[in-house]
Amino acid sequence: MKKIYILTFAIFTSFLGLSQIQGPTTQGGGQAPNWSSPQTKAVGDSCGFYHNQYIPLNKTSTLYFEPMRTGNGSEQTEYNGRAQRFTASQPIEIMGVQFFGFETNPLVDSVMAITAIHEYLSGTDEVGPEIIRDTVWVKHQAFTALLPDVEVNSVFDSTITVTTDYIVAITTPTDDSLKIYASDRFVNDGANEGVSFILYENPIAFPGFYQWYNVLTTFGASYDYDYLINPLIKYDLHDEFTILDDTICPGVVSGGCVTYAQSPVYGDVHYNGYAATQTDHILWLWGDGFQNTNLFSACHTYNNSGDYNIELKDTLRRHNFNSPFCVTEVTMPIHVIDEVVASFTFSQSGTIVDFSSTSATADSLVWDFGDSTMVSDSINVQHTYDSVATYDVWLYAYNECGVDSVMMQVTTDDVGLESYNFDFKLFPNPANNLTNVVGLTEGTEVELINIVGKTVYAEVVNGTQVELNLNDYSSGTYFIKVSSDKNQLTKKLVIRH
Description:
This protein is 5% helix and 45% strand. By secondary structure, the chain is mostly beta strands. The strands form 7 sheets. An 8-stranded antiparallel β-sheet has the order 25-24-27-28-36-35-32-33, with no helix packed on it.
């Protein structure tokens, strides 16, 4: 007997093809990411509840409507339920159901429909137990090609959360003429997915007989259509991306690296119109004017020290008539360490010398007093020399990005108290085509010394500063030596062309 009413259904619904009409087409398909959406969300936010209009917006080229009636003794093939399967790649909150339909009985004001969420039994490809339901009344009396004119929204008394595939179903307990919209099976709008189901429950022909059928697998490819049934859903977005190291050194190739794990909905065609190319809507802004796109993991080189904000934008294109874009925006800080600069001052009384480090961004220090004596990690240190002489005193300053050093000559004596505070500044350093030596006194000699100790430039200045043209010197490490009648001070200079 089952074969009889299945065959009859195939014959009956084939005539409904004459009633198919032109309907909606895909809205915004293939659009570029919209990173300026006003719906920008932060960590842990959601896009809010919305009707997931995946079927009407992305799969339907022409409309087709299906009759829903319980049937009677002479109408054994009437099917009073339609259902659509949706995925749940992560926890999905469901608040209600939307469908499009009308009724054609002139003797009634409206026709009752029952909306429900069912479990999906994946092992047998069946509609499983009901989870929640609501009752609505369809008041539309005539067909219209404008979907908003026949929209029906049903809201449950409470919100449920599903974590596996689920079924959105509509049934009617009456024998009145209720019709709901579907995709056109004649142009294969179902896409051979087999996600639509049909319910047979004829209390007159076969009392107590109740069963859902998968339309595609039961009736064949010529009945591959989907129904315009949409869940009212909400889901959480992703957590923060990961910065592999939030404190890095300047000039290190690919020093700042990040990685990002999208939430499953970004790769699910039911919830994201760009699911086929998940990375097409990812944007990394590094905070220094540079950016990268289309990457889950990326690295960036920061050439200058400072504090920056790395910003991730990821656009999820929802299947929605009105506001399809939901942009997630997450910002995390990264610190690029200043290069270490070694400097110090000293004052002496005879053979006793007090040294004080004025180094910048140093984590540790090493003093070499020029008499085979070395001291570590002291900012202020006093040293007593055994004899009167001139000593080359070196200070080495370290941080995690490197080391810098500076040398001053100290001449001890056995009389009086003399105080020296001899220093100068270099900027920029590293330098490209020029650098400035500032803080000089008239008559000071400035020398540029290369890495092998050869003086490649020397000048006696007449003022308090001098500008050195570096275009004639290759990139590398050099030393600026400043000498007066009493002191000498040497600092490292890096030339980068």
